[in-house]
Structure formats: structure tokens, C-alpha cells
Amino acid sequence: MTSRWILVDDLDKRIEYVGAWVQKSVQEFAQWDNFGPPFGSTVHAVSSGNAGFSFRFNGSNGAVLGTSTSSDIGALIDPQWECFIDGTKIPSANATLTLRNNQKFCEWTNTPAGEHTLTVNVTSAQYPFHFDQIRYAPSSDSQNPNTRDVVSLSYNDRIFNFESSWREVHSMGMMTAVKGATTTFAFSGSSISLYGTGLTSYPHAPSNATYQLDGGDPVAFTLSDLGPAGITVSRFNEVLFEVQNLQQGQHTMSVTYEGDSSVRPLILSSIVVQNYYEEVVSTSKKSLPISAIIGGVLGGFFLILTIIFLIFWYRFRRKRAYQHVDLKEGRREIDPFYVDVSTYKVPSPRELSGEFEPLTRMSRSSSMVGLDKHLVDPFAIPDQSSTPPRRPHPRYSRPPERIAPSRTSSFEILLSAPPPNVRSSGIVAVRLRSDSVS
Questions:
Q1: Which CATH number is associated with domain 152-274?
Q2: What residue ranges of the chain have pLDDT lower than 70?
Q3: Which of the four CATH numbers 3.40.50.300, 2.60.120.260, 3.40.50.10170, 3.50.50.60 does domain 4-143 have?
Q4: Helix or strand or coil: residue 223?
Q5: What are the transmembrane regions (predicted)?
Q6: Would you call 344 helix, strand, or coil by DSSP?
Q7: What separation, in Å, do the N-terminal and C-terminal C-alpha atoms of the chain show?
Q8: Across 40-144, where does the E strand assignment appear?
Q9: Which of 224, 53, 34 is nearest to 130 (CA)?
Q10: Which of 101, 357, 407, 436 has the most CB within a 10 Å radius?
Q11: Residue 248 in contact with residue 146, Cβ under 8 Å?
């Protein structure tokens, strides 16, 4: 929901009129109905023939407002009008056959922000068409602090600070019926008008409130009587107070309700500020060029990657250092559970004779006594007397090779075939001998 509207009065010189338009005072329209007086001090009217006007603006959504005095002539409503944005026709509001101020003649929404041209064509046979104002939502890039526009700021704008005793009512404003409830806001402009709403669904009796400007003395204003209890016509766009001829610069205003729940509550709908602008805080610091920002980001990124690479490289090198043999210091790593037998020659049984302790027959267990004599003793060694001794293979005729002793100790590994009186083959005898080396 748009909270700020730029108001363009019918007297604005940027509006280009075509046709027999005449300027009228608003005095005769001020008390016509319950929708508040027209904006500004005049309206433009055309009561015969074809006429129109155009207006260029930088904004998005908007509306054309005026005073409705339409009537039906036979089957037609007089006057007739059409509205266009950039040459495209937009919907027009239905004509009302009652007198009403601040009537929307046409409204455009979902219009992209930017430069646009509004065109309104009017045809009147007898009854006048009264044009009062144009309002539109400004583009973000058009909110120049030096524009000095007339701006309407709704109750939901960011400038308002409401206490907890205020609440939103029917999307029409912020309401309070608590004595002492205050709202504060800041603005910059030459004058300010505060608009309110009077709803007949709440107490009608008049009540009081005050405002303070820039910390000055409180100034009282009255919320007028809404009429007898049977009146059901509410009031909209009601001007509660105005402050004129303000000095340039930022001002702070606070509004405080002085009534209670038995009298008319205060409903704040909007404020209208003449020559409104927002102060821009200047700074002497110059922003860095985009190339310097990109270069700094990329440089920092590559620096982080370099640090991560060096950390992993250092850990990798340190791990590899423990896996290498330092020949200069005479250290090597030995796996005690692995022997590469391919580098050694297996000695013959004859060369290893006398190196083995004779295998003895294990005695039978006492539990074996009395068993059948044909039972086979699993621990007995078969008689090999009838079997001729095997001749050693020429491959095993060479003496065993020994590992050269190191500075501290040496290991002698002897691999041999089983002795001749053992049937099972492939038994390997390993003798480890440690010799101290001085």
C-alpha cells in the first residue's frame, strides 16, 4: 500500500488545459458533503463542449480527483470523461448522481515507475465537470530533496511513531480513546495540515487534543461533534488543524489525545505538507571505484586459497618425512611382521644339520591306557627307516646369506628344509640372533 502521494493542485502550471475551462472558488463546495473540502483554494470546471488537460509526471500509480455534479440526461450521464496513461485508456470511476468532493474520476494501478503522461478528455452537454487535483506515487529516483512538492503522508508511513494505545481502524487511520496517548513524527516543509476521520460507530460527543511543534507549548484543537446519536453519516478527509509559515528545516511534532472513551476518539488519517522535502545527510567520504572493490575481493580470495594450500602441503611433507629412511643417520624403519624371503637362498638340510633340536615322541596321555592297540597315536612320528634319505636339491647347495649387521644389532634369518627324518615338507626354521655391535 502506497503511503506517500504527491498532490498536484488544479492551479499547477505544469498542467496543460485545452478547451473552455474556468476557475472556480471552493467556497460553494466546502460544505457540500461529508468527504471534506476540495484540495487547495480552487477547482477548474468545464460545462459545455469538449475539453481536456494533460500532465507529465515521474511516478507510478495515481488518480484524478474532483467534485462530482453529474446528472442523467435521458439515457446518458452528463458529463462524460475518459482517462489515458501514455495513450492507453484506463478505467474510469462510475459517476455519482450526488454532490461529492474528493471523488475519483479515474485511477491507474500496476503502472511501472518512470516518466508518464496523463491525458483526460471531457465532454459536457450541460452539467459541469469539476477537476480538483492529481495525486501519484513518486518514483524512488524522483524523490529529490529539492523538488519541494506537496506531499500527503498516510498514517502508515515510516515517519509516524505511535504508542501502544493506538490501533488501526478499518484501514482508515490510527485511532485512540486513551487520555494522554501520543504520536510523534518529523517532517520538513513550509506548512502542515493534519487530516482525520470521524466514524459514527463510536461516541459522537466532541473531544479535545493538543499538538506541540518543536517542543513548544501545547496548542489545543477540537474534534467536532458528529451530531445526534441517530446520525450515521461519518466524516472523511476532515482537516483537524493547520500550521502555516514554517521556517525551512526539519520540524518535530507530537499530537496528544486529551479525551476518553466517552467522547469522540481521535483518528489520524494523514498529513499534508507543503514544500515537503527530506534532508540528505552529506558525507565527505568518497566511495571506492567498483574496480578497486572487485580487486580487493579477488585478492583476498586468492590469499585464502594460498594459505590453505600451504597448510596442506606442509602436512603432506611432514607425513612423508616419517616414511623415508634417513641414510645419513643410519636409521631405517623395519616391519617386524614381514620378511621378504625372495631375497634369501634357502640352505640345504645337510648344511643345517645339527641346528635343530631333535623332535621327541610325545608320551601318551594316561587316558589312552587300555585303548585298542590298533588306535593310531596322533602324536607319533612315522618310522622312516625304510625310506631312503632324500638328496638335497642343487638349488639349496649354497650357504645361507646373512644380513649385514647394523650399528646396534643384526638379525640372522636362516631358512631351511626339514630334516630327513621328518615326512612333512616345507617346514621353515627361522633363527634370530642378536649380536651387539660396539
A1: 2.60.120.260
A2: 1, 30-32, 73-75, 141-147, 279-289, 320-438
A3: 2.60.120.260
A4: strand
A5: 292-314
A6: coil
A7: 98
A8: 42-46, 49-68, 71-73, 76-78, 80-85, 88-90, 100-108, 114-124, 129-138
A9: 53
A10: 101
A11: no
